[in-house]
Design brief:
Blueprint: H1 2-38, H2 41-48
Helix pairs in contact: 1-2
Amino acid sequence: MNKAIKDLDISLDLLEAFSLIYLIVSHHITISLILSKYLPKSFNFLLINL
């Protein structure tokens, strides 16, 4: 029983990490898209490759 709870805890941590990564990536893409409207293409290219 205790092992099951521990496994659940680990999978919840993983889920949290993945959702955080997803948020950061989607936010980064949104920022890049917004910037690409106002900035030259070369600058945006640098941003995407960071």
